[in-house]
Amino acid sequence: MRILQGISHNALHSNWTSICNQIGSSQRKLSSLLEQGIDQNDQTLREILVQINRMCRAIALMLENKRMLKNDVEIILQQILDSNSTERKRRLPREKVRILENWFADHFQHPYATQQDFDELVHLTSLSKTQIRNWISNKRRKERSSTVSTELLQALNKSPS
């Protein structure tokens, strides 16, 4: 995003407005001269046409720069989206999951990590504290939902039909 910070939208808009105003002024002068029936060989007319030609080239360059900038922004945004999507799909390595599952099994009755547990798991797995906290939280949620389901099945089996 730092690339985009260097681009001054106001400066581009100011240049664009200035060029458009100059073109408008030149077109009005040209229309006025043509209405007066000035000869096409007149020096003033030639100067106006040269100015209009220069401004048209400047506008073409600005439009090309705008198109290139738009393409660059689209590429940067796509790269950001691609990097975010690959990060979200990534799973933890199996050996690290085994360590976490062993901890969870050992603490099944009270699966809430203390600071000491976090420090130990961070050391054993090389994962961040946030990753470990999220994994334990997700595991508790999954266990809770599967436990409720088995308890519900048992209750349904016991109920008279």
From TrEMBL:
Mention any one GO cellular component term assigned to this protein in its UniProt record.
nucleus
Domain Homeobox: where?
83-146
What is the residue range of the signal peptide feature?
none
Nucleus is among the record's keywords: yes
An example GO BP is:
regulation of DNA-templated transcription
* Cell location: Nucleus
Q: Which UniProt keywords apply?
A: DNA-binding, Homeobox, Nucleus
Q: Which SMART domains match?
A: HOX
In its keyword annotation, does this UniProt entry include DNA-binding? yes
DNA-binding region ranges: 85-147
The protein's name is Silenced copy of ALPHA2 at HML
According to its UniProt record, what is one Pfam family this protein matches?
Homeobox_KN
What GO molecular function terms would the record report?
Answer: DNA binding
